[in-house]
Amino acid sequence: MDVRFTAKGTPLAVRHDGRVWAVAAEPVHWFIRDSWWETRRSVPVGIGNVVDIEHWQVQVRLSTNSALRTFDLRRDPLSDQWLLESITDN
Hints:
With 90 residues, the chain is mainly beta. It has one helix spanning 36-39, and strands at 2-5, 11-16, 19-23, 28-33, 52-61, 69-75, 83-89.
């Protein structure tokens, strides 16, 4: 899955399952903290933020006439890859 962002860092489109879904509403952005004490993740000193998991909730559609779907996206702190956490049909 690929996420395309605007110059300001807001999701613009999501490529999922071979199709491009355009963001059709204002996305919601938040971070949660990783339970590092449970995962026992260790990294070298100075590597940066390793506990904030980034989330976006985006309403997307394939075309102007198609129904909206909600994608919940997640990116772990040491990854560049976005993961699709869930899909909800509106």
